[in-house]
Structure formats: C-alpha cells, structure tokens
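Worked problem 6 (solution included).
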Amino acid sequence: MKFNESWLREHVAVEADREALCTALTAIGLEVEGVEPIGGELPGVIVAEILEAVRHPEADRLQVCTVATGGGETVQIVCGAPNARAGLKAPLATVGAMLPGGLGIKVAKLRGVDSFGMLCSAKELGIDPDASGLLELPADAPVGTPLSAYLGLPDARIELKLTPNRADCFSVRGIAYDVAAALGAGVRPFEAAPVAPTSAAMLPVELNAGADAPRYCGRLIEGLDPNATSPVWLTEKLKRCGLKPISPLVDITNLVMLELGQPMHAFDADTLTGPVGVRHGREGESLKLLDEREVAIDGGFLVITDADRPVALAGVMGGFDTRITEGTTRVFLESAHFAPSAIIGRARRLGLHTDASHRFERGVDPELPRLALEYATRLVLEILGGKAGPVVEAVNEPDLPRRAPVMLRRERLARVLGQQVPEPEVARIFGALGMAVETTAEGWRITPPSRRFDIAIEEDLIEEVARIHGYDTVPAALPSGEIPLADHTETRLPEAFLRRQLAARGYSEAINFAFVDAALLQRWGLEAGAVALLNPLASDLGTMRTSLLPGLVEALRRNLARQQSRVRLFEIGRVFHAPATAGEAPVETRRLAFAAVGSAQAEQWAVPAREVDFYDLKGDLEALAGPLAAALAFEPVTDLPWLHPGRSARVRLEGEAIGLVGHLHPALARALDLEDEVVLAELDLARFEVRAVPKAGELSRFPAVRRDLAVVVAEDLPWARLEASLKAALGPLLREVRVFDRYAGKGLESGLKSLAMGLILQDVSRTLTDLDVDRAVQAALAALERDCGARLR
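Solution. The predicted structure is:
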C-alpha cells in the first residue's frame, strides 16, 4: 500500500514528524518498507507564466521566453523544453533558488543570451521522474505563488508492507485510525453528505448472486463536460500514491478507492440499457476486458450484467465495450460489496492483478458502498458538472457480514501480556480504533467496526492492545507455573523412534510442500480425490498431495541430477483427499514414505556391489515393525499404475492393508527421466504406530527341538501363506520357523520351487518326546498340503 504523508495528515492531526510517524507505523504492525521524499521546501521556486517564446538566435532547440513572475514583473529565461510556449504556466526557479540535489540557480548566459532563472520539469523539482518537458500547471494557478504552497510540498510517498488480515489498511482513512490510536490523536470526521438528486434518470439494479454479492449501489449522472480535466490536487494525490492520472472519471474512482478503500467502476451510460445486475458466470460466456483481452467465463466468476449480458468482471476489471471514453457525457457509477470468497483467486486465474481484486480478496467494508458513491458523486459534479439521478441500491440484508461483539476479560489480558494495562488506556485504544466499547464486570464487550474483518476472538483484541500500547512495554520474563510433561504412551511408536531407525539405516529426512502440480499427480495416476487450491502460491503448486511419494521421488530425482549416485530419503507428513460430503473439510491422513536408488550399500571392498531392490526395503519395513506385536505380511499387487506389477506388494498388519512397497513402474520412471531402479514404500501411520504394551513372557526350562523340512510348492506362492499355515497348525508349540534354502530348476517341474525350512519346537511344561515331534511334523505337512498344495520333497 502506497500513500502520501500529507494526505494521511488530512485525516488525522498528529504533531509527530515524518521519522516518528514511520517508526510508529512499523511499531504497530504496519511495516514501512520505504519512504520516498517528494519535493522539498523549494525556496525561490514560484508559479510563473510564459508570456512570449521566440527562437534563440544562435540555437534552434532553445527558446527565449518572457516570463511573468507576479506583480507585473517579468524576467527573461532561456529554455530548451519542447513544450515551452506562450500561455503555459510552469514552475520557475528564480536566481538564488536551491533545487533538490544541490543545484543552485544563478544568472547564466546561454549562447550569448542572458537567462535569469530556470523553468523546471517535475524531475528537476524532485516531484516526479518525468523529465520530458516543463511541469505544466493548471491555467488557474496563481502566478507568483510559491510552488511548495500551491502543490502542498514537501511531501513523501510511504509504502507499507501489510499482512493479509489488515484489509482495512488498504486505504488512507483505514491507516489513519491506527495512527490516531498509536499517537494519541483523533481521526477527523469524514464529510460525505448525500447529494440530492437533480435528475430523475436512473437504471434499475438487481442481485442474483446470493451471499457472494449482497449489496450493489448505482447512480446515473448526465450532462458531463467531456472537456473537463482533473484538478491538480487530484492528479497530485494519485501520482504521489503511485497511480497515473487517466481521466477525471477514472481518477475520481481511483481517489475514492485509495482514500476510503472502496473500489468503484464507472460505465459509459450510453452503452447500457438496464437493468444492471450481478450474477454468476455461465459456461461458454466470454468478455472483452479493459485491457482488450478476451477471457472465458464460467460459474466460478461473478459478472456485472446489463440486460443479462456480461459487461464487467465483478471485483476484478471492467469491460471494454462499456468503458469511459473522451466523449462520455453520461456515466453510471457502481459501488458494491462482494464476498472475499467469491473474488479470491479469480484474477490470478486470468493472469491479472488489479487494485480492486487485491482489496476485495481481503475484504472491503460492507457498509461503505453508499458512502463512497455519495463522495464520488460530489466530486464528479464539482469537476465535470452534470445532474445526478437518485441512488439505486439492491441489498440482501441477511447475507451481509456482521461484526459480532467479542468479550475481552481483564484477567486474560493481564495473563497473556504479563502486565496490567490501565483500564482507561484499554478503552482509549479501542475507541481510537473506531470500536464500540462496553465495560462489563469481567472486562469489556468490544464491537469491531464493519471494516475490521480480522477481529473475531478474544486473542484478536489482546493483539490490538499489545501492538498499540507497545510491544516494547511487554515485560521480558520467563513463563510461570508448572510445565506439563509430554504424555508418552507405550501403546504407540513415537515419530522420533521411526526417524531414528530410518536414519540409522542410512535414510535422510526430506520435507516437501504439501501441494504439488496437478499434472504430476495425473502422471502417477494419483489424482483421484485431489483437492485443488483456490489461491495457489504458483501454478505448479495448485493441488494438495494425495501421496507423499510424488514429491519424495522428485527430491530423489533432483539429488541424482546433482551427481548423488546413492540416495535414500524418507518423509513423515500428511496427505489430503476430498471429503465424501460436500462442504466438509478435506480428509487428512498421516503417512510415512521412504525411497531409495543406487547401490544397496555404500561403496566398499568387502561386499560385491549390487543395486537396491525390493527385499532391501522389505527388510527396512520389517525392522521398523520390530516393536509391533504382530509381524507384517506381504501380498503381490499388480493393479497400480505407478508400481512395477512383478516387484511390488501390499503391506498388511493383522490382515489390514496399511501400505505398499515395491519398484517404481518402468513407464513412470521413463516419464520422470529416471534411469535407475527406484524402490519405494508408503505406510499409513495411524495403524502402523499402534503396538501392544510389552509384557514379560515365561521362559521354558525344557530344551527346544529342531526338525527340517523341504516342500515343493507353486513358484508364485508367497512365503507368508506357508508361515501362516504352519502357525495355525502347530500353535504355541512352534516357537520359530526359519527358511534356509530355496531351489528351482533341474529336477523340479516348471512353475515349482522347493523351500527348506527349520521348525523350532518347544513346550513350556515338559520335554518333547520323539513321538510328540513326529506328530507335530505330520500335522505341519498335512496343513501345508491342505492350505498350500505343498508336498514333501
């Protein structure tokens, strides 16, 4: 937000100098990013008029001007400005004047002709960067008047860095309230008396957008002077705020926006038939904007309509066909309130950023449209003349936002700030900020003004007291009271344990954005249920992630591109899916993901080099699951487009699917420009973290017995099926089962494999006899044959 210092002082009377004013603004949270002085005292610079301009006898590009300085006196000035001409009023630096930059004015002789002063451009006076010619002053500028008095100099352009919650400070008057509270002053009353209509001309208005557009005001003004120009006070205010004057009508709407914070728009009334309305866009509609771009409209946009045809993009930009031109004599002024949710992100979707959208996205005072319209009407009549019709207003009262009272407790205020702020000071602060204050037994009931969208809870009021009373007054003290210890339970694996285990196994933690490119999710086939952002930080960060893996693999790829041949990364974070019921919050799920590429072990001489594979990550998963009460089970998975169909598995815990592990699909790897095999895994943390409370178990005093078996089974039969069958058949008698050999090839039919396993049998109450062991082995073989089709080799 840019504004000029003198304009702010018109609204609030403070004695503080510029430095103190800027310091106070920063101290109350309105950070001053820059201060640019505009002009100075300019002693010796006056308003002058060129009476005569003739060509220099010795230079074609110079003119000898006779200049009136007031009181009937004239001086001779040699000038090279291209716009120097008889009748022009311009600034004159007289002999002895000192201009910004240290330029002193003396009597000079230019090509043999004396010059008693210098006619100045805006740049030479430090007012504006324009150096193309003399600063042209209005024809009614009084000759001989000091220029600083005529233009209100010296001045300064102040730029604030505002946080998104302070939408009320996108106006000079909004800033004035904060300055008044901080410096103990008062905001001057704003005079905008209603303008009585002098014409019956009007256009009806209507609302058809529900809560997105609950108020719309309009006024028809006829008989405007098309030759009128903006007065110097108006153009100077705009230029000092960083806006370029365009035409009287556009300048007036810009002035109202900067001063009050209400964006407005002016239509050429001759291009309208009425009624003028607000509705949502429709599929297939288009509109040519003021910048002459044709844009497509859909139901996500609000449009201003004339007889149901779109003529402007509400809250963003007007239409080209209804624009103000040099010949406009009838104007329809609009002033409306649009809900922030209906405007936010719409301009960005079109690659636009306008002053109007910037304000409407953050929230504009819903009670301001009529006041702004009356103020703009008065300015139009003063500058362009004409006759004003009646104000026509359409309003849906139930849909207008209302600021509810908020309670502030004395005890809570003192506890948070660590000090007792005097009660009269608290009341003064809120009163100066334009809030209604009611004292209660417990504290204060504060009703914020309609422009303060950021005041909703008690903490917001405490923040107001803290920043106005002064953050530097808050005592620096350690917090008192007992600090509660974190409640760690043995029934869950803490994230710190998972991080330590993965770090010990060679993984580095990655932290990625929770939003990704929608195209990346589509490439992975993970776009189902994705949540799109209304106002993304960038076009490639517009969708909430549905999995941690796309971002993790992108980080993996970036490391590979920087000559890191062995990369192992993990991430613990949340993924997001659209809710089952519209209007509810997205579903958030905590997950753990890790991925590896390159050699299985760091380069060394003792172990042959090989690439990381499925079994390496399977081993890492089982190591993480060590503290869990149940072992992980793995089953093949072939129906996911991002996993290799022959090298992937679904991870189950007590029969419940909790994640996936496997190799990245070769087609996806090629699309991501990955040449090496990437192995990855992702788990649902909510289930994976749960574990039973550890309990001491009885140790058997009797010896264990081992029996080895070799069975022939189908090649595609997973070991988990065999293990589950053995445990079900032998129960607590089976302490452990170990696979020590796998064979396939000569001597076995195609499609079969031989697995050799050792059964560890033990009883806690007696020594097992040979008969007991033989019965157990026969039961195991019978179960394997029944459940898995196995036969003894």
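Discussion: DSSP finds 21 helices and 40 strands in the chain.
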